[in-house]
């Protein structure tokens, strides 16, 4: 019933099955890989959009500080350099002690504001330092403006 070429036929069947299973495995792998790439693209886009808000906020703060500094000669709202008061020091001292008690919370707020400003300035500086970051910021800005 079987001829002498039967082992060759079996080998060819095994070879065909092997090639088919390899092709099928590669196809399934590529489908899974494409889905993973799509998920990664969505996650990375979300991260960039989330970071874009921080960058825009930082740029806005730095622009406001620059405008205030040019207009008034100072950068932080509410920050007033200590004025030289004329007259004997014994008249000013009680008022100064009361003012210190009342305005300690303002000093804390000012320290927090300068900290936020420093972080925003560092973010803008790092963005401005690298050409790739500048290009990415421009692309994001164009994308947001088109919406």
From TrEMBL:
The keyword Calcium applies. Pfam families: IQ (PF00612). InterPro entries: IQ_motif_EF-hand-BS (IPR000048), P-loop_NTPase (IPR027417). One of its GO terms (biological process) is regulation of DNA-templated transcription. It is found in: Nucleus. Keywords: Activator, ANK repeat, Calcium, Calmodulin-binding, DNA-binding, Nucleus, Repeat, Transcription, Transcription regulation. GO terms for molecular function: calmodulin binding; DNA binding. Gene3D superfamilies: 1.20.5.190. Belongs to the CAMTA family. This is Calmodulin-binding transcription activator 2.
């Amino acid at each position: 019933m079987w001829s002498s070429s039967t082992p060759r036929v079996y080998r060819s069947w095994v070879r065909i099955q092997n090639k088919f299973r390899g092709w099928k495995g590669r196809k399934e792998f590529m489908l899974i890989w494409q889905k993973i790439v799509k998920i990664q693209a969505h996650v990375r886009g979300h991260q960039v959009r989330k970071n874009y808000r921080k960058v825009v906020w930082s740029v806005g703060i730095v622009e406001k500080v620059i405008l205030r500094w040019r207009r008034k000669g100072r950068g932080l709202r509410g920050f007033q350099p200590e004025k030289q008061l004329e007259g004997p020091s014994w008249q000013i001292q009680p008022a100064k002690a009361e003012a210190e008690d009342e305005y300690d919370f303002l000093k804390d707020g000012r320290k927090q504001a300068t900290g936020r400003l420093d972080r925003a300035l560092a973010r803008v500086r790092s963005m401005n330092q690298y050409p790739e970051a500048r290009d990415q910021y421009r692309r994001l800005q164009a994308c947001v403006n088109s919406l």
